Amino acid sequence: MNIDRDNIIIGLFHEGLAYKEILAFLLKWNNLDLSLRQLKRILKRYNLRRRLNNDENIADVTEVIQSELLSDGCNLGYRSMHQKLIIKYHLNTSREQVRQILGRLDPEGVNSRKKRRLRRRTYVCKGPNELWHMDGYDKLKPYGFAIHGCIDGFSRKILWLNVNSTNNDPAIIAKYYLNFVSQTNGTARRIRADCGTENSNVAGIQRLFRTHPIDESDNAFGLQSFLYGKSTSNQRIEAYWSKLRPTVTQYWMSHFKDMRDAGELDETDDLFRDCLRFSYMSLIQRSLDGAKELHNTHRIRRYNFQECPSGRPNVIYDIPEVYDAEDYIVPVTDEDIEIANEVTTEPLLNGCSVEFNALAHFIMQELNAEEPENAAEAKQLYLDMCSIIRNF
Fold first, then answer.
1. For the Integrase core domain, which residue ranges apply (predicted)?
2. Residues 44 and 145 in one domain
3. Domain ranges, residue 297
């Protein structure tokens, strides 16, 4: 029995990949050439299969959905909820079952998510890493939490989705970018972003990496490798922000507004804002990590007016040849990454200064408190910290 191989297969299965997608991943990234029959036999050994009696696990599914409706999953539609059940809880259920349960448990939320569709212009991109879209998201900024993200134009894979105290510092934005470049050993042919000084360091680094064309057909090098424009031209990331609000950020916006209305939150006091960041930053980042994973593993439906393929962003990005496309990544040397690193800065831990982090950890020891696991625990930690600081 090959335990390492089986663990890889189990992980891909729990990402919701189809059997053919699992086989393609194994062949390309692990050099494992299995037949469909072999794959099914391995999955059967671990009692993993796609088709189950929809009634046999309905109690488990209902219980988990009830739990999600009480947290940041309260705004998910049935497709996203179905994907989350697969990815996070490893529950094998049908979309139809999830739709029916949501209809019973949250009929008001179901009705509120019904929207009309707009006719969009055609979006053209040839392959993964041909064009990245990056942008900041400010809906939680009044409370001290600034989000920044980047999405691949072809696959719609979220490349990074981070929260900290600012998304206006060009050195921090450059660090997000360089971390991903180091991870993939390459950059995109082009990057598109809004006009703003926060993108200046990334623009300089990208143009350094793309000083020369990589072949005769490459006309996106030099100045053309980083494109400034209006937010309407940055449609991929803007479209994702519209999905992030109902699924994640609306929950936190409502939570903080409730605290403000109850007199528990003063956004104008920098010290108490640091208390808020310290208490909630890791929790919000965890929500964003979950949203990123959910998006990257869900199946994008086919739409008119788009030339990019339907499918799962992770699969489209990692195995473009399945979709008759090629990877446009541009290799970057370690020497260039080292040079670029000189104009980047690590984001502050919890969005707070070193001194405040030390004070906050001291207060946590005095309170015998642990890292919060949910919004209620984070709120209690915040209130306890504020109470102690007021009495200093």
1. 123-302
2. no
3. 131-391
